Amino acid sequence: MNEKSKKYKTIGEVAKLLNLIDKKTGKLSTHTIRFWEKEFSQVKPHIFSGKRRYFDMNSIDILKKIQFLLKYKGMTIKGVKKYLRDGNSDLDVKDNKTINKKNIKKKISKIANIIKSIKSNG
Asked: Model-level pTM?
């Protein structure tokens, strides 16, 4: 079991990794992963005894890409399916999140400057 725990993560552990937490209840949103599993054929958990889902690093990486494309890039499920189906697997989620955060900070700064200038002219 110890060897399996290194190779595979439970659905709860994956939800925690992806920070899928219900804002109202504070509980992990494992149902989101189960939904993505049904929608995206690339996500293939291993089901061992007891019918529990275990995800390997490949599936976890795909889930990270799905989450990034849906939540941060604003793509639709249909768009993400096409993206993954066309073999666009070179997406580096960490780099794109950082770039996205930097762009957002720049935009917020610009908006704040515009507001300041409007207030000083008004």
From this structure: 0.67
